[in-house]
Amino acid sequence: MYSLFLGCIAPLRYPGIESATREILNTLDIEYCELEGASCCPAPGVMRSFDEKTWLSIASRNLLISEKKGAELLTICNGCYGSLFEAAHKLESDEEMRGKVNEIIDDGGYNGTTRVRHIAEVLYKELGVDEIKSKVKDQLKLNVAVHYGCHFLKPSKLKKLDDPERPTMLDELVEATGAVSVSYKDKQMCCGAGGGVRAGSPDVALEMTKSKIDYMKAAGATCIVTPCPFCHLQFDRGQKDLGQGYDLPVIHLSQILGLALGVDKSKLGFESHVTPVDPIL
Predict the structure, then answer these.
(1) To the nearest whole percent, how much of the chain has pLDDT over 90?
(2) pTM tops 0.90, yes or no
(3) Domains in the chain, start-ordered, CATH in brackets?
């Protein structure tokens, strides 16, 4: 059983990511429950930098809600995954800090037992690529630039998901849909937005976004697929700021799987994207 942690950006800025995730979980018979009362993860690049105890207290409250349900916490965002995974690891291994945090939160305190998962991890490691292939209804004829994002694989010694320098799991999930994952320069580079750069130095963030998209387009990509709504936002809205010639559709992993699994396009929320997706549908 998984408790579905939505985060902030997906339900508020890209509701199609939330809808697509629910649709593919149902289609693939992955059992999940709601995480009522959950808050922001909170973002580690900002909150933890100022006050670790506050960051851990907010994170532990989310972990506690899932712990009480006896469920593994399922994230659909790299930032949420990174924050909650690292908080769970810290609170499991540091009993003294867990005690300090439990003095702050209500409801009896967190015991440190919640396992945090990313939806891509569950799809790849628990369900498997072959099972997904067996349920694909529409083979997608797309050349995809896969963007892993910074917080998905790292810290790699703790997460142990894939080779952090040459990962393949997202490429394999994308190619299960019939699409082709194209190789492009600086594939593991940041989207530009992370660590508060989008807010604090938007010009720097946009320059990094431009570089990545230029490399993707040069490789012949017809769209971008990412497992992270914040990277999604940076690529999607950043292209509007870049202007003419930047129109590469951005699709969350749940959305491309929804397309291949035959989910009604009206439930995938493409209308909320700034960069139109219609040209490739």
Answers:
(1) 87
(2) yes
(3) 2-119 (1.20.1050.140), 130-280 (3.40.50.11810)
